[in-house]
Design a protein that fits this description.
The complex is a heterodimer of chains A (about 350) and B (about 110).
Chain A (H helix, E strand, L loop, with lengths): L1 E2 L2 E4 L3 H12 L4 E4 L8 H4 L5 E2 L8 E2 H11 L6 E3 L4 E7 L2 E6 L4 E4 L2 E3 L5 E4 L15 E2 L12 E5 L3 H10 L4 E6 L8 H12 L3 E5 L1 E7 L6 E6 L4 E5 L2 E4 L3 E4 L10 E2 L2 E3 L12 E3 L4 E2 L7 H19 L14 H6 L5
Parallel strand pairs in A: 1-9, 2-3, 2-10, 3-6, 10-23, 12-19, 13-14, 13-19, 14-15, 22-24
Antiparallel strand pairs in A: 4-5, 7-8, 8-9, 11-20, 16-17, 17-18, 21-22
Helix pairs in contact in A: 1-3, 1-6, 4-5
Chain B lengths: L1 E6 L5 E6 L5 H7 L19 E4 L1 H6 L7 H5 L9 E3 L13 E3 L6
Parallel strand pairs in B: 1-5
Antiparallel strand pairs in B: 1-2, 3-4, 3-5
Classes of the chains: A alpha/beta (about 350), B alpha+beta (about 110).
Chain lengths: ~350, ~110
C-alpha cells in the first residue's frame, strides 16, 4: 500500500502540471496512467502536430510540450505508474483507497482525475463475432511476433502500425493487408516499401475492403472481407490484426459515484472538486459552466485543485500563498537554493 | 439558419434548426441528439461524430479537407458517404440536410 498526499490519474499535460503544483507547495504525489508513456493525448494523438495556443509558447508540438513539462518536473521526485489503469476508488475511513488493474494500491486523502476523456483503448472490429477470437487469434496489438511465423496473417488498417507490421511480418509470414481506401496515412517511406512488397508478391493488398465476418469454431479459419461495391472475398487466415487507432473510454471512472454528464465530471470552480470530498477533476474531463477544453484551462484547474489538496493532506497547517520569484521555501523545493 | 434532420440507426428522426456558423456536430450536441459523441470537441482528432450523408447532399456540401479522410479510417463502419459532422459547417446552403447516425461511434 502506497501512502501519498495526492494521487493523480492521467499523465497528460494537465496531470503533469498539477503534479508540479502539488510538489511546489510541499505535497507529495504519484501519477497513474493507462498508456505506456507520459504525455496523454499530446503524445498519443498529435505528437507531431504544432500547438499555437499555449501562453508564452508561440508554437510547439505535442511531444515538445510534453518534454517541457517533464523537464519542469525535474527538481521533484515523482513516481509514475505507467501501463496501469485505476479500477477502483473507495472510501476507507478518512482516505480514498485506490486500486489499479496491476494490483498497486494507494491510500490518499486526495484523488485528482486528469483523465482527458478517459483511458485509451484500441478501436475494435465491428462484427460482433470477432470478440470470440480476441486475444487468441485476433489482436489489436502485437506482443509476441514469433507466434505468426509461417502463418497466414490478415492485417487491417492504413496507418503506420498496420504498414509497419505488414512490412515486418512479410519476412516470415504470408500477409494480407486490408484497408478501406486506396490511400494510406503512414510515413511515405513505409508506404513505398509496402507497394514494393506488393509488387514482389510478398504482401497481398486489398483496398476498398473492410471486415465483413470471421469464420471458424474454436480456431479462426478464414475471414470474409467486403468491397465498397458489396463484393465479398473469403481469405484463409490464421491470425487477424486490427490497427484502427485508439479511442478514449471513460471506463471504470463511471463507477466511482461521481456526477457525470456526457462523459465529463461535474466540478465546482473553486477547488475543482467533484460531488465526492477529496476527489477532484481537472482538464478535459471536468465540466463547469463556461468550461473550455484547452490545455491552458487544465493548468489553471490543476493549480487550484492542488491548493485544495493541501487542506486535506495537512489539516493542521495553514497554506500560505507564495511566488517562485521570491519565496525561499519554493526556491529550496525547486533546488535553486540550499 | 438551416434545418437539419438527424436520423438515428433505429430510424428516429430529429429535425432541428441550427444557426449558421455552427457545425452539424454542434447542432446535434446542443440539441441532445443521441449517437454523436464528439469526444474531442470538434478538433478532428477522434472520429466519434461520424455520420453518413445521403448521396445527393454528399456532393453538394463542402468537400473534406486534409485529415478528415485519415480520421475516418478509425471511424466505426465507415462508408463511401461518411463524414465527420464537426467538419460540416452550417450555412443557408445546407438547409434541408439529412444525415444518418451510425449504430455506435466506437
Amino acid at each position: 500500500m502506497i501512502k501519498t498526499d495526492a494521487l493523480i490519474i492521467g499523465a497528460g499535460p494537465t496531470g503533469l502540471f498539477t503534479a508540479h503544483q502539488l510538489k511546489l507547495i510541499g505535497l507529495n504525489c504519484e501519477v497513474v496512467d493507462n498508456l505506456d508513456k507520459i504525455g496523454g493525448q499530446c503524445i498519443e494523438l498529435y505528437p507531431d502536430k504544432p500547438i499555437y495556443d499555449i501562453p508564452a509558447v508561440p508554437e510547439c508540438t505535442g511531444e515538445e510540450l510534453t518534454n517541457n513539462l517533464i523537464n519542469q518536473l525535474k527538481p521533484f521526485d515523482i513516481k509514475f505508474h505507467l501501463n496501469e489503469r485505476v479500477e477502483e476508488v473507495k472510501k476507507e475511513n478518512e482516505n480514498w483507497l485506490v486500486k489499479t488493474n496491476n494490483g498497486t494500491s494507494f491510500s490518499t486523502p486526495n484523488v485528482i482525475i486528469a483523465g482527458g476523456v478517459g483511458s485509451f483503448e484500441p478501436r475494435k472490429f465491428s462484427p460482433k463475432e470477432c470478440e470470440k477470437f480476441e486475444n487468441k487469434s485476433l489482436f489489436y496489438s502485437v506482443k509476441d511476433k514469433k507466434i505468426f511465423k509461417g502463418k497466414n496473417v490478415s492485417i487491417f488498417g492504413g496507418g503506420d502500425s498496420a504498414l509497419d507490421w505488414a512490412v515486418e511480418l512479410s519476412k516470415e509470414c504470408s500477409v494480407n493487408l486490408i484497408h478501406r481506401r486506396d490511400e494510406f496515412r503512414g510515413a511515405q517511406a513505409t508506404i513505398d516499401k509496402v507497394h514494393q512488397l506488393v509488387k514482389d508478391g510478398k504482401i497481398n493488398l486489398y483496398t476498398q475492403y473492410q471486415m465483413a465476418s470471421v469464420k471458424g469454431n474454436s480456431n479462426l479459419e478464414s475471414i470474409d472481407i467486403k468491397h465498397d461495391n458489396n463484393e465479398i472475398k473469403n481469405l484463409k487466415t490464421d491470425y487477424v490484426l486490427g490497427f484502427f487507432g485508439l479511442i478514449m473510454q471513460l471506463g471504470p471512472i463511471a463507477n466511482w459515484g461521481l456526477n457525470i454528464d456526457k462523459k465529463t465530471i461535474e466540478v465546482d470552480t473553486e477547488k475543482f472538486e467533484t460531488n465526492q470530498k477529496g476527489i477532484y477533476a481537472v482538464g478535459d474531463i471536468c465540466n463547469y459552466p463556461g468550461k473550455l477544453k484547452l490545455i491552458l484551462s487544465g493548468f489553471h484547474e490543476g493549480a487550484l485543485a492542488a491548493r485544495a489538496c493541501f487542506k486535506l493532506a495537512r489539516p493542521n497547517e495553514k497554506y500560505r500563498f507564495e511566488f517562485t520569484t521570491t519565496s525561499t521555501n519554493l526556491l529550496k523545493r525547486l533546488g535553486k537554493k540550499e | 439558419m438551416a434545418k437539419i434532420t438527424y436520423i438515428t440507426h433505429d430510424n428516429q428522426k430529429y429535425e432541428v434548426e441550427v444557426q449558421n456558423g455552427l457545425t452539424v456536430m454542434e447542432g446535434a450536441v446542443q440539441n441532445d441528439i443521441p449517437g454523436i459523441d464528439a469526444d474531442c470537441g470538434g478538433g478532428m482528432a477522434c472520429a466519434t461524430c461520424h455520420v453518413y450523408v445521403k448521396e445527393d447532399w454528399f456532393n453538394k456540401i463542402p468537400k473534406k479537407e486534409d485529415g478528415e479522410e485519415d480520421m475516418l479510417d478509425m471511424a466505426f463502419e465507415p462508408k463511401t458517404n461518411s463524414r465527420l459532422s464537426c467538419q460540416i459547417v452550417v450555412s443557408d446552403e445546407i438547409d434541408g440536410l439529412e444525415v444518418n447516425i451510425p449504430s455506435k461511434q466506437a
